[in-house]
């Protein structure tokens, strides 16, 4: 990390990380620590809100979907206690509607997983309306399509017929797509 990045962090380097994917959470915490942040982690909405209320951090990276609810509840709690906090919402289910909802409740930016630590730092440190640079390795169109199909499949409780109906595709076509590995 360059010295200019350290200066951009300012005095308060506190960072709240909330994600229910524990291995990802540990990796991100280590990576952010190496970049000068002082991370504190939580795996639930309740844990994230407790930290936000007790010790509101200057920065936060919050997963949208957590096992005990929506990460947007943590965003709202943090925004209430610390209006100047820079908050990035992460999710494996990237959609325009959820991005709009995240920004409306106070998120600074919105990133789809998989996002690496550099993408997160760029989003956290972007100034004002300045957009962070585009990712070095964006998902391919095939991968985005596959992620969307997987998301709808999960939302339909892994019911192939219901998923096919909602995606307006033939059930057998969907079965072939689901049987394949994810594209790069």
TrEMBL record:
SMART domains: REC (SM00448). It comes from the Bacteria. InterPro entries: ActR_PrrA_rreg (IPR047772), Bact_response_regulator (IPR050595), CheY-like_superfamily (IPR011006), Sig_transdc_resp-reg_receiver (IPR001789). Coiled coil: none annotated. Residues 14-128 form the Response regulatory domain. GO terms for molecular function: DNA binding. GO terms for biological process: phosphorelay signal transduction system. It holds the Pfam family Response_reg. CDD domains: REC_RegA-like. Member of the two-component regulatory system RegB/RegA. Involved in transactivating anaerobic expression of the photosynthetic apparatus. It is a transcriptional regulator that is responsible for activating expression of the puf, puh, and puc operons in response to a decrease in oxygen tension. PANTHER family: PROTEIN PILG, STRESS RESPONSE REGULATOR PROTEIN 1. This is Photosynthetic apparatus regulatory protein RegA. It comes from Maritimibacter fusiformis. The lineage of its organism: Bacteria, Pseudomonadati, Pseudomonadota, Alphaproteobacteria, Rhodobacterales.
